[in-house]
Design goal:
This protein is an alpha+beta fold.
Length: about 1000
């Protein structure tokens, strides 16, 4: 008898409901895709704009600080002293000429200066340049009053100076102070007009990546209007002429100036929809806005969504057309499987066992195939005859418990499954799966066991093999994914769970596209499916996204899984995360490109010599320019052809220097070189032995010092101190070049430049004035010599000499030369102090363990980073008693620098940094605290991970704390962090005083 067919046949109403459900599901999916595409495009544009805005804001701040520092005049400097002479009428002509010369020197050094003017305390112009007199409006007068009160240079914002719209300048006012320290007096101020079109406007206009609409602009508020300060990309309106109402609710610049936030969506000055990031430029009223039109941001998202909509409509039509055919085929397949199962069930052995007699009362004919016994023989056997001793003992133990539990009323235990081993006629045994059911009589008493036995020997073997394969897959370090033909995930291993962050129960049944990040080219997916459709394997790279949103790159190998008949049923994907490998390769490529760029653009000439023969193997572009030869010509010349070739500048001496370098390391010396025209000139040579490509070579860095040498010979004893300074600066420069290997030293370059520019600027100016004075002195001495060689001593020639002395103001020159030299010595002392702090900070040439004073390292590091701190905070010191500790001083200085700079960055406007030190048993500690914004609790556990940073995009690499952690660990120490949002952070470094026994010997410590 056949069972009734229960196949489900949908009605027309049900078909309509299914169609409506599919359409709703499709529309929901399209909406989510639309939201995802537009959100992704918005986020990418926002990240780019934040990076550009941060970069532009920092560049403008550095430019402004540099000009304020360089144009600030030293107390009782050359300009102040000559202004006093001019105001008092003492040799006004010479004083005026000296001031004009000083102005000319400044304009030569800084082309942005249009002109400069000097004003007295009443605001009257005393001396002016070639440009028109600047308008002394209220803004200038108020700034001048503040400059003279605070004695610090200040800025007068963008303003027009002429009749045309493009005559726009920035003014810097610097106070002029006379007298010695403790008795100083402000006597006036200098006004410098700067042309923003030469450097500032191009700096704002530059955009780091190609874009059709993106631009950066400066704006400020004037009353109820927004004024745009720089030339704009999409309008010919000149700066300061384009104005918009401050209450424009859509204008990005207006909303940012009203404090609505940094990232804003609205309209730009053309009323075009745009996305903008606005940052306040520190120490100014300027708002820096980096913006991009919505039409460019969402162009790719719109195109992709249109393509997806068209594809979805086509898919919907196809699905609805094939739905009935698919259901009919499904019903036919189900019926076929049902009948096939009934037909194949005959291979299982069905039996009935009487508990009272312990005999089989019925055994199906399949017993002969299963156990090798006939039905008659099987009916004569007991359960003990059928089962192996172990299986029989298990049945004897379990059967009474099973019967008792069922008799007690647990009806769910009527049927149970067992796996037992049965004996065969030929003496072998087989693994069987038994489904046994308790049979009761009319009174409810259990009388029989009814069961079905199935041979599972081969299945058990297959399970064992599958278990081994599964264990291998689970323990594999690479991700393994298996999908069915519908692209539904049916298996993932533990490596996949760890790599993606998705638990198994969440990922199974999903489509692998859940991992897509949108960055993998569509061509890669097309190629993959083309290969898989043809039954071929595919190998390639995929950009995927983890559950937490982070992206990673993986190398995937996808292979079709075939059944013995050749039918493809599944796809196997073996994937390896190569994000770190690719990042390292990219970093190496970038490093190589940076090195090649520096090598080819550095001003010094670089020669690479073969260590054995001394032949030139390679040169940079500066070497060709310095010596006047092409690269090919230099590679064919030996050292004698590019040297003076007179003792001691000969080939033999050069080879001795090379040998000394190979035996004793770095060598530095001065040399007389010869260029292609035969000109002899002085150079400074630094030799260093290096290993390149597995061979020993010598690197020569050559710097043209001919001008310096000629100047030294001309100045003789008067410039002896300047020669010593040049030597110290050369040594400091060499140390700085070496210390540039530290990843974070780049951020200090601007600060050191600011500290060096001011003393070097006025020393250079004083030397120019000294040169003029020497000309006057030599003219006077020549006149005296002419008189002394004449026939008489007391004659009319002496009157001419006296007149010349009066004209040159010889008495003033004698007095001013002393002041010039004192001022220059003070400037040189400031430079020497900076150089000493740099040397003490980096400990050049001391990358070995030694006994060192941590307080000295803290103080030198604090001096180096002072330019980063002085505008943001005050520094408090609470030093305890510390003994010298065994360490690598330069590495610990690197740790102090990173923590101090991070503390300054954490302070939003103004705050405090506190340094505390102390000792506990055999350890010392250094604690650096700030009153900044603090660190969120969820970030504390990740602070020391490489590339992790809480700073905005473009303001940090995430390597500083990781490097500090590595250095402290190598010193057998540790770092502790305490932080509270809104109150500040404290980093405490604990270090042992002595190195543990068996630690690295002195002189062998490697840099981290």
């Amino acid at each position: 008898m056949f069972e009734r067919d229960n196949t489900f046949a949908p009605t027309n109403r049900q078909w309509l409901a299914i169609a409506v459900g599919v359409i709703i599901l499709l529309l929901t999916g399209l909406y989510r895709v639309h939201v995802f595409l537009y959100d992704h495009a918005h986020n990418m544009a926002e990240q780019q704009l934040q990076s550009v805005a941060a970069l532009k804001s920092q560049e403008i701040q550095r430019w402004l600080r540099a000009h304020l520092v360089v144009l600030s005049q030293p107390h009782d400097g050359h300009m102040a002293r000559n202004l006093i002479r001019l105001l008092e009428g003492r040799d006004a002509k010479a004083a005026k000429q000296a001031l004009q010369d000083r102005g000319r020197h400044l304009r030569d050094a800084m082309p942005e200066i249009i002109s400069f003017w000097l004003f007295d305390l009443t605001g009257q112009a005393v001396l002016g340049g070639e440009a028109p007199h600047p308008p002394l409006d209220t803004r200038h007068l108020e700034t001048a009053r503040r400059v003279m009160e605070t004695r610090r240079a200040a800025l007068v914002d963008f303003h027009r100076t002429g009749s045309t719209a493009s005559d726009i300048t920035l003014d810097i006012l610097a106070p002029l102070i006379a007298g010695q320290e403790g008795n100083e007096t402000v006597i006036g101020y200098a006004l410098f007009q700067l042309d923003p079109t030469l450097e500032l406007y191009p700096m704002i206009r530059r955009w780091p990546v190609p874009s059709t609409t993106a631009e950066s602009l400066l704006a400020r508020r004037e009353g109820n209007e927004v004024v745009f300060l720089n030339p704009l990309r999409h309008t010919p309106a000149p700066p300061l002429s384009l104005r918009r109402p401050i209450d424009d609710a859509e204008l990005i610049a207006s909303r940012a100036l009203l404090g609505e936030g940094e990232v804003l969506s609205g309209v730009d000055y053309r009323h075009e929809r745009a996305l903008g990031v606005a940052l306040q430029v520190p120490e100014t009223d300027w708002l820096l806005v980096a913006k991009m039109d919505d039409s460019e941001i969402y162009l790719d998202a719109r195109n992709s969504f249109l393509w997806i909509c068209v594809s979805a409509l086509i898919l919907l039509v196809v699905l609805l057309a094939l739905a009935r055919i698919f259901v009919a085929a499904l019903h036919a397949s189900a019926r076929e499987a049902h009948y096939r199962m009934l037909a194949e069930s005959g291979s299982d052995m069905v039996w009935l066992y009487e508990l009272n007699t312990q005999r089989f009362t019925y055994v199906s004919p399949s017993v002969e195939q299963l156990r090798g016994y006939s039905v008659a023989e099987a009916l004569q056997q007991t359960m003990q005859d059928v089962l192996t001793p172990e299986s029989y003992q298990m049945v004897v133990d379990e059967l009474p418990k099973w019967v008792a539990a069922y008799t007690a009323g647990d009806m769910s235990l009527r049927t149970r499954h067992y796996e037992v081993t049965q004996n065969r006629r030929d003496g072998t045994s087989i693994q069987t799966e038994v489904v046994a059911t308790l049979i009761t009589d009319e009174s409810g008493r259990i009388t029989h066991l009814q069961g079905v036995s199935r041979d599972i020997t081969e299945r058990k073997k297959a399970e064992d093999e599958l278990r081994k394969l599964s264990l291998a897959a689970e323990q594999s370090p690479v991700s393994i994914v298996i999908t069915n033909l519908n692209a539904e995930i049916v298996y993932v291993n533990e490596a996949f769970v760890q790599a993606t962050g998705y638990p198994r129960e969440e990922i199974l049944g999903q489509n692998p596209r859940i991992l897509q990040s949108g960055r993998t080219p569509k061509a890669s997916y097309a190629e993959m499916w083309a290969n898989l459709s043809e039954g071929k394997a595919w190998r390639g790279e995929l950009y995927n996204r983890r559950k937490d949103g982070t992206e990673y790159l993986e190398l995937a190998s996808i292979t079709p899984i075939r059944q013995p008949a050749g039918e493809v049923t599944h796809y196997l994907a073996v994937k390896e995360d190569i994000t770190d490998r690719r990042r390292i390769a990219a970093a190496l490529a970038e490093s190589e490109e940076k090195f090649r760029t520096i090598y080819d653009t550095i001003n010094d000439a670089i020669f690479v010599h073969d260590a054995a023969t001394g032949h030139v193997l390679d040169v940079n572009a500066s070497a060709c320019q310095m010596y006047g030869y092409t690269r090919e010509q230099l590679l064919k010349l030996d050292v004698s052809r590019i040297s003076a070739n007179v003792a001691p500048y000969t080939l033999d001496v050069a080879q001795k220097y090379i040998q000394l370098t190979l035996e004793h390391g770095w060598q530095a010396f001065e040399w007389q070189a010869r260029d292609s025209t035969g000109r002899i000139f002085w150079v400074a040579v630094n030799l260093q032995a290096v290993q390149i490509g597995g061979s020993q070579q010598v690197l020569a860095v050559v710097r043209d010092i001919d001008s310096r040498k000629r100047a030294e010979e001309a100045l003789q004893q008067a410039l002896a101190e300047a020669k010593a300074l040049n030597a110290k600066l050369a040594e400091a420069q060499s140390q700085l070049l070496q210390s540039e290997k530290m990843a974070s030293i780049g951020q200090l370059a601007a600060g050191v430049a600011h500290e060096l520019n001011n003393p070097i600027g006025f020393v250079s100016s004083n030397l120019g004035t000294l040169d003029d004075y020497l000309d006057d002195i030599f003219a006077i001495t020549d006149a005296y010599e002419a008189v002394e060689s004449g026939p008489c001593i007391d004659c009319s020639q002496l009157d001419a000499v006296r007149a010349l002395k009066q004209q040159k103001d010889f008495a003033y020159i004698k007095t001013d030369i002393v002041q010039l030299m004192a001022e220059s010595k003070d400037g040189l002392s400031r430079v020497a102090k900076i150089v000493h702090d740099l040397k003490d900070f980096s400990r050049a040439g001391e990358a070995i363990q030694q006994w060192a004073d941590l307080h000295q390292g803290l103080d030198s590091t604090l001096n180096i980073v002072w330019n980063e701190l002085k505008y943001k905070c005050t520094v408090n010191k609470d030093y305890g008693e510390l003994p010298p500790i065994w360490c690598v001083p330069s590495q610990l200085n690197q740790v102090f620098m990173n923590l101090l700079v991070n503390a300054a960055h954490a302070i939003p406007e103004k705050g405090e940094i506190t340094l505390r030190t102390g000792r506990r048993d055999e350890e010392v500690f250094v604690a650096i605290s700030d009153t900044g914004s603090g660190i969120a609790p969820e970030h504390l556990s990740r602070l020391f991970e490489p590339f992790f940073t809480t700073k905005p995009v473009g303001k940090g690499t995430g390597l500083g704390l990781s490097l500090a952690y590595s250095i402290v660990q190598k010193h057998q120490g540790h770092i502790e962090v305490q932080s509270e949002l809104g109150k500040g952070t404290t980093f405490t470094i604990w270090l042992p005083i002595k190195a543990p026994e068996g630690d690295v010997e002195a002189g062998t410590a490697d840099s981290p």
